[in-house]
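Deviation from plan, reported transparently: adenosine-5'-triphosphate complex.
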Amino acid sequence: MANRTLRTAAPPALRRAASQVASLAPGGLFSGPLSDAQLEAALEQLYVQNADGSHDLLVPHRGRISRVPIRATRQAVFDAHWPHFKLAPPVVESSAEEQVKGDERRRVEARKVREEGGQAAAAAKKVGVNKEFFRQLRAIMRILIPNARGKEVFLLILHTGFLVLRTYLSVLVARLDGMIVRDLVTANGRGFLRGLGLWFALAVPSTYTNSMIRYLQSKLAIGFRTRLTRYAHDLYLNNKANFYRIINLDGRVESADQYITTDIARFCETLSALYSNIAKPSLDIIIFNVQLSKAIGGRGLFGLFCSYYLTGKVLRAAAPAFGKLAAIEAKLEGDFRGAHGRLITNAEEVAFYNGSAIEESILNRAFKRLVKHVGSIYRVRVAYSMTEDFVLKYAWSAAGYGLIAMPYLFPAAGAAAAAKTQSADVGVAERTEGYVGSRRLLLSVSDAGSRLMASYKDLAELAGFTSRIYVLLQVLHSLDRGQYQSLPRPADLAPGQPFYDLGDIRGTVRHGSGDVALTKVPIVAPAPGVERGGEELVKELTLRIQPGMHVLISGPNGVGKTAVARVLAELWPAFDGTLELPDAKDTIFLPQRAYLTTGSLKEQIIYPHAVPQCSKTDDELMEILQAVHLGYVVEREGGFQARKTWTDVLSGGERQRFAFARLLYHQPRFGILDETSSAVSTDVEGLMYQAAKERGITLITISHRPSLMRYHTHLLHLGGEQNTWQLEELGGDGSEALSFEDEIRELEANLKDVEQWQARVDEIKRELQPQALQAGA
Ligand SMILES: Nc1ncnc2c1ncn2[C@@H]1O[C@H](COP(=O)(O)OP(=O)(O)OP(=O)(O)O)[C@@H](O)[C@H]1O
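Because the crystal trials were delayed, the predicted structure below was used instead.
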């Protein structure tokens, strides 16, 4: 969609198309080709809201639009799963001495986790096919197969049916093989031709069965992936902003995007492939061995099993830690992808600095680490593959030859007597038939065995992916419940000194208040997994902002101004005191960087509303844009429905004005603005502030610009000694507009004083001259 403007449809046509899209039955499909208007309507209208709160996505696909029902995971489901994902409670030490030792151990562990790049990386070192792996897999299976009547169960049953059918067909093929060779040896042309006909007749169901097995395996993988991705999304993107917490308030998972996009996909593919890779050869081995036992007898079969057992032992001992290697590979893939993501996000800045060379070396370093690791996996695989090949292809076959030959070389007495009565030719033919059949079965067993052994390697790799997915879900579950990493208070911290541990948040938050109020709330920069805890930026802030009280927050860089906004937005916790907040819909936060979403021009104004929620007409939206001096953009960009990469086409100031337009569109009771107009000229800035106040929005502004004081009634100054703060009432009602004329007048008045200041500077310089100082002395 990059930089592509769709042809603007006439509004009535668009409205008609939109109503067609909305009236489409759930699960329904628009048959193509769609008109431009319909396509626009569907692109614009991301989803259709249902009466029960669920929504149906409108997904354009190959010139059609399908309506896909999406049901959010219910809280009851998360509650039921929580016991399977929660961390084991810390061991309670009985004596004070043990307590100290336990605390030290937790500190060392946290340090190690940090050094190793997150919990997932640390966990990767312990993965393998063990009890913990099966526990984690069971917990994830609850998400993949939520009930016995689900689609996945049906797919599994069908899949199993085809697996059995394929094994049965293989047995038939083995028998037929023997018959064809027998007819050849006895020069039975008719029998040979009949055998060939049967051979082709069997080929049709065999090829169909093989294709169906692959198809069902892929269906199962995509079904699992859909369930797991939706589950992770529901936890990641809910109203608790867990996507923010996982990045900023928790050090356990790095690059969550890699987990959700790539690791989940690889986990599901490996899992569903593993089912066929284990079920099919296991079934083959059982059925083929039953068949073989008819030819080689009970003793032969016992010998065969002894050889399986021995080779299994040898291979297991020779197998490297595939799970651990796979988990580390996934982490390194994540790092590499993350480095690329960072470059894309900051492309313009890097280009301005001409920073390609250093960025390339950062990317290459991440890639090199990945390649080195993958190279080492290949190396360890060479030795393992050699052992596997030798054991499964050659040792098994040799043992098999010996076992098959037994009945022929050492026939039982009765069988030998019977053989004598038959003609020599018939005896040779039957022996050949028996031998070829058994030989094919044996080859199949050997093949099944090697697939089973190979699937042990897949199982070990699955253990690696399982551990990563499990850690992701565990962290998301615990963040969703407000449970963070906790560390003990450092022993050397003075008793009166505060220690801010994310595991010990004591503040109270009350929603539904008419004001924004903080009572003795310390503003603390959280530090997940850091021994000394969070850093106090502002000491116990107490402040009540009532409607109509416009507060400007100022102070030096890094003092904690944005941190106050983060606490008010509940992104950072209130470690102590009481926070009173209005309902979420009554407050809008405009962050420092003006965020632009993907979608149409209209969606930039109404964000985070989606089109179906838009409460204003195009004319009303135009009025809002004019209030922030952006009216011209609609025509320039091709209408409200135009879709572009907005960060590329809007200037910095325009982006900030769009953010202000959002404030006017939502018209909340409180607007918390963080340097929202730093790139906007002062005259337009003044008009925007004026427009917001006229709409009854109480402003809480973070800014370094003193010119903004005139739009506020109070000044909160941060950055006093020992993190103190000061609230000052500003003169006036904050309603004075600043125009260019006002600013010029103000500057001219200041210029008048310049002569006086210059005279004073000269005076000071004179007084500081050495002669004057000596005279003074
Ligand atoms: N995600 C974070 N995790 C931990 N500490 C942070 C985080 N973001 C910022 N900090 C720290 O919190 C302190 C306050 O940051 P904040 O962004 O509130 O500063 P500010 O007063 O708004 O500065 P500026 O005027 O430069 O925007 C800084 O020292 C910074 O190092």
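The first helix runs from residue 11 to 23. We consider this an acceptable substitute for the interim report.
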